[in-house]
Design goal:
The chain has a single domain, classed as Electron Transport, Fmn-binding Protein, Chain A (Pnp Oxidase, Chain A, Roll). 32% of the residues lie in helices and 30% in strands. The chain is an alpha+beta fold. The model has no long low-confidence stretch (mean pLDDT 93). The radius of gyration is 15 Å and the shape is globular. The chain has a seven-stranded antiparallel β-sheet, sandwiched between helices. A hairpin with a 2-residue loop joins strand 5 and strand 6.
Length: 145
């Protein structure tokens, strides 16, 4: 049974997705700290049902980098767990929808993406690893033809 907090979070997320789609990202296309936001749709690792969530991103050389910061919370977001189980996903950037291949980075590649892409673009994300007490996972999404 979902807790009240989980139900409120889910309802808020659904409203954010609806508003983003309704306005083509004009509302909801930037987070409070100014980071750019896209909509990520990925199949649930258990249910197989599609889940859509707004996620901050950095675009670099045609790829989209997502950091599973959860705002520095100790538990990583569900979407990164779903991405680990998926080979493909869909992103919406403004009104543009794209299929992407998924690569959840590891080791030195993940460390470099965190430092040189995510934190270099959004310095306010830097403290999240210390705050959360966990390594922040980074996913690279590459548009498919």
């Amino acid at each position: 049974m979902a807790t009240l907090v989980q139900r409120v979070w889910k309802a808020g997320n659904a409203a954010a997705v609806w508003m983003y789609r309704r306005t083509g990202g004009k509302v909801g296309g930037r987070a409070k700290g100014g980071s750019l936001v896209l909509l990520l749709t990925v199949a649930g690792r258990k249910s197989g049902l599609p889940h859509t969530v707004p996620v901050a991103y950095v675009e670099r050389d045609g790829d989209y980098y997502l950091a599973a910061t959860a705002g520095g919370q100790p538990q990583e977001p569900q979407w990164i767990r779903n991405l680990r189980a998926a080979s493909t996903a869909t992103i919406e950037v403004g009104r543009d929808t794209r299929m992407v291949s998924v690569d959840v980075l590891r080791g030195a590649e993940s460390d470099a993406a965190w430092k040189d892409v995510i934190v270099a673009t959004y310095p306010s994300f830097g403290p999240y690893e210390a705050k959360s007490g966990r390594k922040i996972a980074v996913a690279r999404l590459t548009p498919t033809a």
